[in-house]
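Interim report to the steering committee. The following record documents the input for Aminopeptidase (336 residues).
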Amino acid sequence: MMPIGSLEAGPRGTIADVAGVTVGHCTLAQGAVQTGVTVIRPHDGDVYRDKVPAAACVINGFGKSVGLVQVEELGVIETPVALTNTFGVGTIANAQIRAAIASNPRIGRDDPSVNPLVFECNDGYLNDMQALAIHEAHYMSALDACSADFECGAVGAGRGMSCFELKGGIGSASRVVRINEHVYTTGALVLANFGRLPQLIVAGEAVGRTLQTGANARPEQGSIIMLIATDAPLDARQLRRLAMRSAAGLARTGSVYGHGSGDIALAFTTAYTVPHDSDYIAMPPLVSDARLDPLFQAAADGIEHAILDALFSAETVAGREGHRRISLKDALRTRP
């Protein structure tokens, strides 16, 4: 794959280049069931006790996520972030609540309730969503599997996803930026499940127009979830500005944010936490708004790269009723 942008990547080239961030998958791949769960932990502690500054941006709101209202209001996340299919959202939210209660037995009694945070995409072309195959144990399995080293492609929540009528899924990237004497890392992770094949652009080349895949064009019913992590000290207002720049990276791949696509971004920082029990928040000096442009570039380049990483990492998958999504690599091999 051609380089994306001018910024250098971190050593892993994934969201885990932001120190403390880990990712885990649970993949279900058997016959008509092609789905799963992916979990992103912002740090290895108890996120309910040490909340993480965050903000979300809804680019196109055709989605069924849980937890966005409180993130917008309070500017923090208090569980790991979970990704799954549309019909698995409620189950995974319950699993997040149970996990938080197990670590904090006074939740919902003496302590406030917990805000589960689950994002979804519709993987119904390859996966039989009516089977309701996602169980709470799958969340725990993905949570336990969280590591700085993780797979991308048709794994976890990305198992049944389609992107530009090819095989989509999980993709990730990272970028390193310098603001005066400070060096910061920004990482991206996407659940890519959107787009029509003729729209696909790879590193500026209109690749989709040249591909012959036998894809069956249908109205867009996909989505993309875009996560941005950074170690730069930002507040929730600035993080929302960072999340908005994911739309630039998404557009570069050819997306027009179609009617049936839920395009949602979340950005968080690991530079500090918000203690659950403290009367005050110890915040480091924040990056000035006038110095945010390198981070904006990192977000846009990272999201573009992560989407292409999902496409190049995925393998061809067959699923429900014989439906099949060919991988981009296989499609390119047969390109005229």
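The mean pLDDT is 95. The committee is asked to note this result when reviewing the revised timeline.
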